[in-house]
Amino acid sequence: MTRLFCQDHPDTLQLDATVLKARPGAVLLSQHPFYPGGGGQLPDLGIVRWHGGEVPVTGFSEEGGALWLQLADGIEMAGEVRAEVDPAFRQLMRELHTDLHVLNALVFRDFDGALVTGVQMNADGTARIDFDLPDADNDRLRALEPELNDVIAQDLPVLAHHMSLTEAHAEKGLLRSRSVSPPPSSEGLIRIIEIAGLDRQACGGTHLASTGASRPLKILKIENKGRSNRRIRIGLQGL
Ligand SMILES: [Zn+2]
User: How far apart are the CA of 183 and the centre of ligand 1, in A?
Assistant: First the structure.
């Protein structure tokens, strides 16, 4: 997959672009600010403005290495357009995604390097993350909530950089998912998200610039899913 604009510029939510190719209800733009989904993060919501008006983007499809936007109307666009991400939705995903890294870091530290077996962020401001944790005490997991909110309050910087797949495999704890790791870019590089002083792990999503940009969190529920899977549900406070 080619490197996404939103990974390097998560704060830039509007881009002017040229229509490269189009068919009814779908368009390929010269550039766009959207995150197409993946790694448990939902695809961005947004619109494309063109000379015929504006149309919601309903989804994304990768065709031959290029990312097409699916449109709500069966129109065929041409010329110059402006692509715009829904700011509230992007902010919500950035908060949930960053907060899941914080939770993941604390669980990894306190529960013998437990790995992630699944993750899903939701549009209602909740998310779930599953860990391979056969013997964990749920009360100990629940007790992480004050420290989660303490890390958010410390406003730790969140940084991104890239390294080779070989380097990523060599650093223990960088590939945190039990079964899948993020696909390398077309240059063979893996993207690393670092929360300063707390955590480093491979990830391809959109995150906050610092943890303090998140609303406080609640741990909503802890469930046993199967013999070894533990599911933690979190939610942003005030939603
Ligand atoms: Zn991430």
Answer: 13
